[in-house]
Design a protein that fits this description.
homodimer; alpha/beta
Chain lengths: 238, 238
């Protein structure tokens, strides 16, 4: 996959679970993949969906975002079930090291709706949905970027299969926030979802295509990457 | 820690983040710790707080709960930010393999309050808090155990620093659910919280003591374990 993506795509997103299944041997293989991706000039998002509090959340940030760490990536996915505030240490680390975080907000699976659309009762975001309160806190974490019109280091995960309105969100919430967008291809969204779901925030999204590419198999995977990139370029040109 | 706990405590709960920080070398060390714990007759809860959907959630379950896996534990902590339904595969795996899962519900950190006390709007649990809806779905997952008066394989994490009422929960919700209870010691709860916080469910809880024991240092750690166990026995005897 790294060979196929190098020079054709910008970013690879290894799914950590499929390496973790093999224990330390799996992580050793992942370290080789990360090294090869870096050597190919690819950026890496570690799809780890870690989450914890305090010194433990800090350790997860160190594992994936510290320059020189064996598992160093350019960004990681992370979960705020224990509050965006519980992620203060990895957020600080990302901002300091020029790395990125993508906090789960409105994910692409239907079972997520109950938790992510629940209405917050406590604290300064009372009345907002869980998804909207996470997006607002991530936006605050981006500090200066928010005001300068550039994208911040802290992003969110918003699936391409969702309707923003269902989650109490609107496209204007994301002016300074990069969006990692799963849900294309096998999970059901076509590239037409970029305009329909994300509207003006469609310029901020990282379109994720996994199984559509992997299914092509070793012989055809490079051309599958190129096809996806070409189709995406057409969407943005239009 | 394993040497100190063997024969004195029932369970060890390694915090995966602190191994992950060292990449594959850290996981290799963790595999040795897990092997030593098993050889000492200790049960192991992998504090991993993983979470994802579909085949990825299944892979996390396989990593930690499959007999013979390099990272095999007896139970793991897991997050339902994407819905308890997203954890169907690891739940099935736990039930089939006689392993356990502890789903985060009402954790011990104050930043978690906004998400975990939010009111669900969608689906069959509308009107319940996120924490209560997770507890109810975990209870359903336990199937037969729920009706036979025994504890099920699926548990929840309820911090000893919380008030159940704040999270829309009551002690009666846990009749068939084991509870992993962090928050004792450094996070602020004394053993008196067992009765005060958990009431009649105090019989279902796994009391977690980490830093209070670790801080004793290598020379005194075994006696620190014994002291904690003795104090806990007094609470239950009373």
């Amino acid at each position: 996959v790294v060979e196929a993506a190098g020079g054709r795509a910008g970013i690879v997103k290894p799914q950590v679970a499929f390496f973790e299944r093999y224990g330390s041997a799996g992580f050793s293989a992942l370290e080789k993949v990360l090294g090869a991706a870096r050597a190919s000039g690819l950026l890496i998002i570690a799809d780890a969906k870690r989450g914890d509090i305090g010194s433990t959340a800090a350790a997860y940030g160190q594992a994936w975002l510290t320059p020189g760490s064996p598992l160093e990536a350019d960004a990681m996915t992370i979960s705020a079930f224990q509050g965006v505030g519980s992620l203060a240490d990895p957020i600080r680390l990302a901002l300091a090291a020029g790395k990125g975080l993508f906090v789960l907000a409105a994910t692409s699976n239907p079972e997520s709706l109950a938790v992510q659309t629940a209405f917050v009762q406590q604290g300064p975001r009372a009345g907002a949905t869980v998804a909207a309160s996470i997006v607002a806190e991530v936006n605050e974490s981006n500090g200066d970027a928010r005001d300068s019109g550039t994208l911040g280091s802290c992003g969110v995960v918003i699936g391409a299969t969702v309707s923003l309105a269902d989650y109490g969100l609107s496209a204007e919430d994301f002016s300074a926030i990069p969006i990692l967008a799963p849900g294309f291809g096998h999970q059901g969204a076509g590239f037409d979802a970029i305009e329909r779901v994300y509207g003006p925030s469609g310029r901020n999204i990282l379109v994720n295509s996994s199984r559509t590419i992997l299914e092509a198999g070793p012989a055809d995977i490079a051309s599958a990457v190129s096809t996806q990139v070409r189709e995406l370029a057409k969407v943005y040109a239009a």
